[in-house]
Amino acid sequence: MSPSSRSAVALDELERRVIDHAFRLQPSYAVGLGLHEYDGIVPDFRRSSTDAWAADADRLLGELSPLDDRELPPTRVVDRILLRLLLESPLFDLRDARELDRNPMAYVGAISLTAYIARDYAPVAARVTAILRTLDAVPGLLAEGRRRLAPPLPKPFVELALAIGGGLPAHFGEAEEFAARDGLGPKVAAARAHAEPAVAEFLDWLRNEELPRATPEFALGAARYQTLLRVREGIETPFAEVERAGAADLARNQARLAAIATSSRKTLAELFQELNADHPAADGILPLAREFVAATKQFVLDRRLATVPEPATCRVEETPVWGRALSTASLNPPGPFDTTSSEGIYYVTPVDPKWTPTQQAEWLRSFNRSMLGNVTVHEVYPGHYLQFLHFRRADGGTVRRVYLSPSFVEGWAHYTEQLAVEQGFGAPSPFAEVAQIHDALLRDCRLLASVGLHTGGMSLEAATQLFQREAHLERLPAEREAIRGTFNPEYFCYTLGKLAILDARAKYLGPRFHGNLSAFHDALLASGSPPIGLIDRLLAAAP
Predict the structure, then answer these.
(1) How far apart are CA 203 and CA 103, in angstroms?
(2) Residue 325: pLDDT above 80?
(3) Exposed, middle or buried: residue 353 (CB in 10 Å: 0-12, 13-18, 19+)?
(4) What sign does the dihedral 154-155-160-166 (CA atoms) show?
(5) What predicted TM-score, i.e. pTM, was given to this entire model?
(6) How far is it, in rounded angstroms, from Cα 148 to Cα 142?
(7) H helix or E strand, kind and range, residue 436
(8) Cis peptide before 152, with omega less than 30 degrees from 0?
(9) Sequence spans of domains, the chain
(10) How remote is the C-alpha of 31 from its chain's centroid?
């Protein structure tokens, strides 16, 4: 057997082992991809178990290292990089970020039943079995959290864990209602009787013991932040350069917004006031979102922006209660290994009736018609939903349908917002572009806040003011954005990924794809969701 074939065989065997190993630590990730043999499995977060997982990951990395790229087919060279990062990324979370030792959201966030309720991939009874298995594991999971979390915990992490955990009983109630369809409600009710007291006990512990002694310190620090860029995105670019690129994009977007205001003979304040005033009523948000789903799909087809793999349907639902503390809108995509359906679920967070009238009004203004149109472009067409339809048939090995780069996934969706405006979405009214730039300013500020919060000593108040001043957010959403940056530093991914795709378009669209946008976009999406550090290599080799 030649060295080339030996290396290829070795990588084939390693690919399966690495992927299986990654799913051991993150079974819900596998479920989201459509691998339902992982249904109902809750991760084992005991220190002895995660230490053993890390040691096995080190051994797998040791087996990947001797393989010589020159002895592998070009597509498998990329796959080998993805397999390495599939191990290095969770190792960073365990060892560098110490997520399981300092972030209670890791525990309450591991309890989700949405995958079993939302999608009709199996008989109700089979999905209820997964629900019961999950609920039965809740007391042990949260007890381990109490043993492992080491005070003082970062205060924003504790507060958000309380918000997420507070929505779990209602989420369990949704599961009981779902199970009642097949007469299985009593079984879920019995499981809830053990799970909910464990949740309440965990939240009481956080509220009464950990919150009073929590620390405002949450930052990764410069060295860990640089490592984060490498293990998530495969890039070595110094974070100071990333920050400069974000600041330059912010300046470009602000200049364009000022030009629109000047041509409209309005001040920026007047422009945003007019934008925000055109919003639906509280009960009109979801119907309007459904209209936009149909309109944006037709827009992609009419402008020939990319191939739309059929069947392609995406329904609109309210964000589940447990997810509303962190999400304005999101997409639950079809998994690449789910053979039962290609349907997407577009979640939109409604007005919370418990909010004050002022907060409710602010939320509605943030969901003005133009903004909701831009959000739909991002989440559905030609954004995430279209992206995941292509992801289901990505080129390369199995790992191409497993690895998800945050900056590729969110960068693509953010790029499509600008693409849609470039192609005339919402014209001739200026407000579609105003909404697009408004969201671009938000993403620019996320990048700047991420670097500032984690490497530059930026306070939460300073980050809140950044979003208010530079992204023109009102106080409530600005506070939410600042807090998000404490536990999700990689929300830099929107701008970072968008800029990488724009750079690739400028470099390859003409000479490589002869100006054919659809061909460029199809080739980009055919690569899966790779780290943005690999975009050049993948497009240069595209057929």
Answers:
(1) 13
(2) no
(3) exposed
(4) positive
(5) 0.93
(6) 10
(7) helix 431-455
(8) yes
(9) 227-540
(10) 16
